[in-house]
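Lecture 7 notes: from sequence to structure.
We start with the chain below.
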Amino acid sequence: MTFVLSTTRGDVEKYVPLFNLKRKTVMRGQEGSRYEHSCWTIEVQTLEELVEFSKKIEQELIISHSSIFDDLPEIEVYDDYRE
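Predicted C-alpha cells for the same chain:
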C-alpha cells in the first residue's frame, strides 16, 4: 500500500536516502490559479514492515487520511510537538 510520508518538522527529505521513497505530484487549485503540489510516498505492504519502519527511525507514527492526496493515506513521523 502506498502512503504519503510527512514529518511534523517538515524535513521528510532526510529519509529519502534511507528508504525507497518516491515523489508524487498533483495539480491543485481552481482553473486559472492551478499549482503543483508534491510529496514523498513510501510503500508499506504489511504491519510488520510498518513496525520495522517505526523502529528504524525511532519515532512515533501517526496514520491518517491525507489532506492533500485524497486517494492515499498518510504516515506522519511525529518528531516534534504540535497541537
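Points to note: The radius of gyration is 14 Å. Helices lie at 47-57.
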